[in-house]
TrEMBL record:
Species of provenance: Candidatus Wildermuthbacteria bacterium RIFCSPHIGHO2_02_FULL_45_25
Gene3D superfamilies documented for this protein: Protein of unknown function DUF192
Organism domain of life: Bacteria
Protein name, UniProt field: DUF192 domain-containing protein
Pfam assignment, any one: DUF192
Length: 168
């Protein structure tokens, strides 16, 4: 009986604090999800199989993006998709500024990769990255927090510039 009580207490301490704690002890163990930090994402949860969407603005251009805000979504990215509609993209959100590498594994169409820093400014890009470049990797020259993948040629067609702010 004592073992059962001790086990119950231990389980409550380990799991119960996380449920009932409002930011004290467990705060240091809790990672804030990217979705919580993006204010423009609708509060409703997407249905199964549907990606969370965000409206992005760069200058006078509006773009609709799927969010890649978890490890699984960032790993999958646009791989396996047959195409990407014009003025749509995928916004990758990382937990902290970092150097990341992207590749074209299982991609079916070329893309532009836009590197965006913590201040939501465009710091660079890779244009017309073809699926045949796999296994080569592409990385920013500075730390980034966001990466936007769009159809190849989108940067040029919309006259995107280094230093432009992106809002979402």
């Amino acid at each position: 009986m004592r073992i059962h009580i001790a086990l119950a207490v231990a389980l409550f301490v380990v799991f119960g604090i996380g449920v009932f704690d409002s930011g004290g002890f467990m705060k240091s163990f809790r990672k804030v999800s990217v979705r919580e930090s993006v204010s423009s994402v609708p509060s409703s949860t997407p249905s199964r199989g549907e990606q969370a969407k965000v409206v992005l603005t760069i200058g006078s251009e509006t773009l609709y993006g799927e969010l890649a805000d978890t490890v699984a979504k960032r790993t999958q990215g646009l791989s396996g998709k047959e195409n990407l509609p014009e003025n749509e993209g995928m916004l990758f959100i990382f937990d902290a500024p970092n150097f990341v590498s992207f590749w074209m594994k299982d991609m079916n169409f070329p893309i532009d990769i836009v590197w965006i820093n913590e201040e939501k400014q465009i710091i660079g890009w890779e244009e017309n990255v073809d699926p045949n470049t796999y296994p080569a990797t592409f990385s920013p020259k500075e730390e980034i927090v966001y990466v936007l993948e769009v159809n190849a040629g989108w940067i040029q067609r919309h006259d995107i510039q280094i230093g432009q702010a992106i809002a979402f």
